[in-house]
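Give me the fold.
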Amino acid sequence: MKTIISQKVGKSESQKAANFLRLSIYKPFFYSLFSIFLSLHAFAQEKDSTQVNRLDEVVISAVRVTAKTPVTFSNLDKKDIKYRNLGQDIPVLMNYMPSVVTTSDAGNGVGYTGIRVRGSDATRVNVTINGIPYNDSESQGTFWVNLPDFASSVQSLQLQRGVGTSTNGSGAFGASINMLTDNTSTKASAEISGSAGSFNTYKENIKFSTGLLNDHIEISGRLSNLTSDGYIDRASSDLNSYFLQGSYTGKSTLIKALVFGGSEKTYQSWNGIDAETLKSDRAFNSAGMFTDENGNPRYYDNETDNYNQTNYQLIWSELINKDWTSNFALHYTHGEGYYENYKEDADFEDYNLIPIEGVESTDLVRQKWLDNDFYGMTFSLNYKKEKWDVIFAGGWNKYEGNHFGKVIWSRYASQSELGDLFYDDDAVKTDGNVFAKASYQLTNKLNLFVDLQYRGVNYQADGVQPEYIDQTYHFFNPKAGITYEINQKNNLYFSYARANREPNRTDFEGGNVVPETLNDFELGWRNVSEKLQINANVYYMGYINQLILTGSLDDVGSPIRANSEDSYRLGLEVDVTIAVAKSFYIKPNFTLSSNKNVDLTVDGFSYGNTDIAYSPDLIIGNIFVYKPIANLYVSLLQKFVGKQYMNNIELPEAKLDSYFVNDFNIAYEIFPKTVFKSIMVNVLVNNIFDTEYVANGYMWDVYPYYYPQAGINFLAGLTLKF
C-alpha cells in the first residue's frame, strides 16, 4: 500500500460519511446475493467431477491460453507450490519461473515483496483473479501484502510473458499473471496447517470444504494468520486474511460468490541502506529514527503501514449448449488504511499549521490515508466448434480514491482543530474495454490467431499537478499470430502484439504524461515428449516513449519514471523439463537478453545506447527434484541474476552485482487409514550457502541505496488433512 498512499488522496468528513454510506449499501447487496445463491435448490442430481471442472474452467477461459495459442507462457498450479507454501508471498513462489526476478523489503519474502518479468516492474504486469482485474488503478502496481497467504486459495496460476492476450484491467507491458481460485470440490474436506521459521516467522491456516451439498452447493473457506519480525531490523509483519467461497453447480450452470481479503500492519522498511552501512550493518533500518531532546537516537514504535482490504466477486458461468459458453462477473473492492511517520523539524506551513511566536518548525507524527472503492463488471462469450474458437469479452471498472493526511501529534501546539487535514485530494478513474479473440484451425497443422481490443480510460485527479487533471485515452491493441504443428511433439509459433498504456499517478506528479506504446514480437518452439519438454522463444519488445524507472524515489518513496523516446528488449528464453529417471527430473530455464535505451538524452546530455534500469542481461533458474521413495519429495532450487543498473545512465555507483542463491526443500507426506486423509511435513531452507546479496535498490541523486536479502534461513510446516 505504500505506493498507493504515498500518491495522495484525501477526503473531508462529509466525503468520508458518503463513502461509508456507499460501503453500507454495497455490503448488504453482496451479502444478499450470497444468501440468495446459498438458498438455491434443485432436484438431486449426481455431479460428475469432470463436468464441475469444465464449468470452473469457463471462469478463466477468456484470459488463459493453451499450447495452440502463439503466446509465451508458463503455468504454476497447486501441486507445484504446496511443498514450499509456508508463508512467503506469491512473487517469491514464482521466483523460479523464466525471466522472473523477485525481491523483499523485509529480506525474507514476507510483507512487501516485488516482482519483475523481463525487466518490467509490477506496474507493467497485469494481474487478474478469476479474470477480474486486481492491479491498483492509480499506481498500476499490485500490492501482494494485501493478499497474505493467498497462495493457499489459488488453484492455478498462469504467467504470460510479453503483451499476452487481451485481458481486463490495465494493459500488460511486461507480463500478465492470472490466478484461478480453488475449484469447486465434490468431496468434503478440512485442513489445518502451521509453519514456523527464522526471524520469528509463524503462519497458521485453517481450510474447509463442505463438498457438494444436495449435489449442487459447496461452501469453502480459509482463515490465515501470518507474523514475522523480518530479516531487516523492525521490518515486522502482522498479517491476517480470509477467503470464503460459495458455489452452486447445476447441469449447465456454475455460480460463485466470493469474499476474500485481509489486514496488514507492517513496520516500514523501504528506506534501504547506503553503501557504507551495507558493509557494516546489513540489517539496519533507518525508518522511524529520530533524536530526542537529549540528543539520543531513538525509534518511533509505530512507523507502520496499515491497510484493510475486502474483495467481493459474483461469477456466473453457463454452458449454453455444446458450442457456446458464457461468463459474467460483478466485483467490488474496498480498501482503507494509512501509513504513519515521525517527522523531525517539520515546517508548520507544510502541514497547514499556524506558526507560534518564535517557533516555525516542530517534531510531529503524521498519517497519510487512502480510502478507496473499486467496482465493475466483466463478461465473456465463447464459441467453440470444429475449427473455430472465438471469444467476445470485455469489462467496465471504476475507481474512486480519497487521499488525505493529518497530524496526530505535534511537539509544539499550533492553532488547529481536531480533524484538520494538511492535504485532501480525490481521484476517479474509469476503465472500459472490449475485445474479440479468434482461433481458426486453417489446416491440420496450421492454426491462426487474431485478438483485437479497444480500451478507453479517463483519469481525474487533484493534488497531482497545480491544475486539476482530467485526461482521457483511447487505445487500440491488435494482436495476431500463427501456430504450426510440425508433429504431435513439436510446434512453432509466431505472434505480433501492440499495446498502449497510460501514465500512472506518480508520472503525472513528475510531469511525465505521455502514454507509451509497445510492439511485441514472439517466435517460439514447443516440444513435448515423454521424458523431455522444451519451450524456447525469441522476443523483441520495441517501445515508443517507454516510461522507465530512473532508479530514484520521490519524497514519499514512490519510484520515479521518465519517458525514454526509443528503447527495446531483445531476448532468448529457454525453459526445459528433463525426466532423467522415474524418480529424478530437472527443470532448468534461462533468459539471455539485451535491454537498451536508444540514444538516451537526460537533461540535454546524450548518453548514447544504455542499459534499461533493473534489466539484467542474464537470468537463470533451475529446480532439481528427487523422489527416492514414495511420498518423499526433495528439491534444490537455484537462481542466478546477472548484474543490473539502478538508473539508465549506467552510473558505476548504480550497479547491482550479480547473485546466485540456492534453496533446499524437502517434504514427506503419509496417508493414514484413520482420522487423517494425509499428514505432510515440509521444510524449506532458503539461501543454504548463506550468500550475501542485494536484489533491489534505488538511487538518491548519485547515491545508491540497497535492499539486502536474508542469509541462510528456514521455514518448517505441518499440514493435517481430514
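The longest helix spans residues 13-38.
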